[in-house]
């Protein structure tokens, strides 16, 4: 096999789509299909043996939830690039896919030629998504960067960088579960961090944390509110979230 050829493994529940992709990919001199199967418990072993450059999924239920195939691939030390065909125009699914490590996202109604183009681009080190979703990626990135911290600064409360990061996310009114999903940490780990922050800053609840850390202006980079909203929650909802007993980190 030529070292310049891109090895592709297709995991598709849709039989017609699977066969169509195999026919199209097999006609390309620079692509080779190492496998094309529906999901089964043995698929991850087959992917490991094939060592593909790109793995393509057509099911969010398989790739992102249920078996969580992508996460299990990473846990097994498999570093193939992942392309996913979104069977629905759903921004939430798209963002979840990006969070799991998908670097190529194609909508179901895209022509086969688009699938081929995305596979090639991803194999070459690019990340590709439909233009309509690009703005959401920029918004998410801007929101996260707006609440990033200057590593050269120290806080008067002696918060670690992780704790500083959590303060920024608490300001958004996110729950422990939502923060955990954002940082890929367990809800209990976030709860433990919140307890430590409460002790360090001498706060009684999450709202008090935000109020006490508000004066640390050099640490928190203010978001440009004229361009990107830092949270989809309304101010009232965020305030209620910060004071909710369930979210105080003490329940």
Give the % helix. Answer: 40-55%
Kindly identify the CATH topology of the largest domain: Rossmann fold
At the first level of CATH, the class of the largest domain is: Alpha Beta
What is the annotated CATH architecture of the largest domain? 3-Layer(aba) Sandwich
The rough form would be described as: elongated
- Please name the fourth-level CATH homologous superfamily of the largest domain: Response regulator
- The secondary structure category is alpha/beta
What is the end-to-end distance? 58 Å
Count of DSSP-assigned helices: 12
**Order of helical and strand elements:** EHEHEHHEHEHHHHHHH
What percent strand? 5-15%
Determine Rg (CA atoms, Å): 22 Å
* Main beta sheet: 5 strands, parallel
Biggest sheet, strands in spatial order? 2-1-3-4-5
Q: How many strand segments?
A: 5
Summarize the helices and strands and which ones pair or pack.
Layout: E1 6-11, H1 15-26, E2 31-37, H2 43-50, E3 54-57, H3 60-63, H4 69-75, E4 81-86, H5 91-100, E5 104-107, H6 112-123, H7 131-146, H8 161-171, H9 176-183, H10 187-201, H11 206-213, H12 235-243
Parallel strand pairs: 1-2, 1-3, 3-4, 4-5
Helix pairs in contact: 1-6, 8-11, 9-10, 10-11
